[in-house]
Amino acid sequence: MITIMDEEILQLLRENPSAFFSGEQIAKQLKVTRTSIWKRVRHLRAAGYEIEASTRSGYRLIRSPDRLSSSEVKPLLGTHRLGRKIHYFQTIDSTNSKAYELALGGAEEGELVIAESQEKGRGRLGRHWFSPPFLNLYLSVILRPKIPPQGASLITLMAAVATADAVQKFTGLVPLIKWPNDILLRGRKVAGLLNEIHSEVDRIHFVILGMGVNLNVDGKMFPKDVRRVATSLKKETGQRISRKAFLLVLLQELERWYAVFLKEGSSPVLKAWRDRAQIKGRPVKVHSFGETWIGIAVDLDSDGALILETAWGKKRVVAGDIEYKNKMSNVKPQSPNGKNTISNS
Ligand code: BTN
After folding, report:
1. Distance 326 CA to ligand 1 centre (A)
2. Minimal CB count within 10 Å: which of 43, 49, 149, 278?
3. Chain Cα centroid distance, residue 225
């Protein structure tokens, strides 16, 4: 575990990267003994920090590991609103649960919860999110937009657009969004969003924007049930991804899109989402609250619901999963409750 004292030592060493800091200087600044500095340096080395030590000159930071701690990330942040405070954990049950708890306790807009791994990473619809250590990104952002609760789904669409833009800026690959907010590369999921809201009837108290991005996980590491449908940026690009560098781009895109949403409202977000999703006119199968609907995707409603043209007429689907079908003829007619049959012809 990286302690506050470790963070302080690193901060000092980073201030002047080419210079040595003597153990005595550091100890004096931190008001501790030289022995405790020596012990923490030994610990930092074990945690992957390359620290040169010379008996005469002291310590110098040569290289940091790809860790997402506050001291690693904050000095590099190009954002104003997001990341002013970072709550960092080596491991946690779920960054969303922690962010929710912090927000209930008064955490401010833009505070982040980042973990190197999650023991109970949560996905949409009660699923589990595979969260192995030091490979991917597990991030929750606390937002406090002054909008009514009905607008919350637009925040989700906005975050999906921002994530897709970040993936494209970082890799040059062009991701698609799959309704409602999965980010796909070559048809496989590379990122997912789990957004949770705390509100009263006419006012949002806060939104927790939970973002999971598969960065360096290898295909064969995924649990069997998702192996066929999941991917990572490393798998798609053939290159190891710097998690820190990706996080910086993601936060920048998120801050940009959040500002657009607050200033200009839903239209630019919906337009960008539609461009990325290319869903209009596609035959789809939708699973929603135990029902299965088959039809042609007509559009995304202004609140983020999916509008389907089915044999039963128009249907609005507010939550669920979709499967794309190549042709309507490949889609077996199916009723919403499994008993009646919808005809697609
Ligand atoms: C999905 O099912 O597509 C959503 C996955 C969201 C996963 C992220 S990882 C960070 C945050 N903490 C969680 O427990 N879940 C979200």
Report:
1. 29
2. 278
3. 21
- C-beta of residue 212 within 8 angstroms of C-beta of residue 131: yes
**Mind listing the pLDDT tens digit for each residue in 140-185?**
999 999 999 988 989 999 999 999 999 999 999 999 999 989 999 9
**Distance from the alpha carbon of residue 138 to the mean position of ligand 1, in angstroms:** 7
Distance CA 225, CA 85 (A): 36
Of 194, 178, 183, 162, give the one whose Cα is nearest residue 268.
Answer: 162
Paired residues of 128 in beta bridges: 122
Residues 6+ apart with CB under 8 A from 247: 68, 73, 114, 137, 139
CB neighbourhood size of 72 (10 A): 23
Please give the Cα distance from 192 to 210 (Å, whole number): 8
Sheet strands (E) in the chain: 50-54, 58-63, 86-92, 112-118, 137-143, 176-178, 182-185, 188-200, 203-213, 283-288, 291-300, 306-310, 313-317, 321-324
State the Cα–Cα distance between residues 2 and 138, nearest whole angstrom.
18
d(CA 332, CA 227): 25
The structure's pTM equals 0.85
- What is the per-residue DSSP string for 19-50? S-B-HHHHHHHHTS-HHHHHHHHHHHHHTT-E
Identify which of 171, 182, 178, 179 has the alpha carbon closest to the alpha carbon of residue 235.
171
231 lines ligand 1 (CB under 6 A): no
User: How does pLDDT run across 184-239, given as a tens digit for each residue?
Assistant: 999 999 999 999 999 998 999 999 999 999 999 998 899 998 999 999 999 999 99
Ligand 1 atom at minimum distance from 99 CA: 12
Residue minimizing CA distance to atom 9 of ligand 1? 212
Nearest Cα residue to 196 out of 94, 271, 317: 94
